[in-house]
Protein: GNAT family N-acetyltransferase
Amino acid sequence: MPLGSEIPDPGTLQAGRVGIRVVRRGDADIMRTLLVANRRWLEHWEATHPSGRGVVPGSVSMRPTIRVMRKQLAAGTGIPYVVLYDDVVVGQLSVSEISGGALQDAQIGYWVSEEVAGRGIVPLAVALAIDHLFFTLGLHRVEICIRPENGPSLRVVEKLGLRYEGRRDAYIHIDGAWRDHDCFAITREEIPGGLVHRLNSPASSA
Structure:
């Protein structure tokens, strides 16, 4: 079950040069431009429909998609962020499957432009999102599921210190086939000082 009420827009969550904020209708053109420019970079990791139907990301206007994404806030089921670097949109971070009740859980997925990959943007963006989910919305657990072939994403969860919880066989239809995913998770009790703080601590960067 969702949280049961509308999720307030938190505004921009910022740590140094990296930020995240809820996607806006005005982001449609830049999002489409990024998706087109990064087609080869992203296509191997994008969800596809088993029937073969579906729209290639960036091939049509993003405005209807953004309207649907923003409805998740009102429904209490998700938070659609854009990722910012020096206040410029460089990617997307999606919090989905938000559950209240006895579960208090959510899932996170993300991508950034190839042009800015490797600068530590994604770990910090994910840390910002998780801290908000834990310490503002009061969730208990967050998980990230990654294809075992996706080395850059595996390095993100390694930097963040998420626990490996096992492999889900044929979990999501991606790039034309059912793909295995490795599941990583973290709970609020594991990071009492917050994940951004832990990520930026000397022990983490050593």
Summary: The mean pLDDT is 91. The chain has one domain: 13-205.
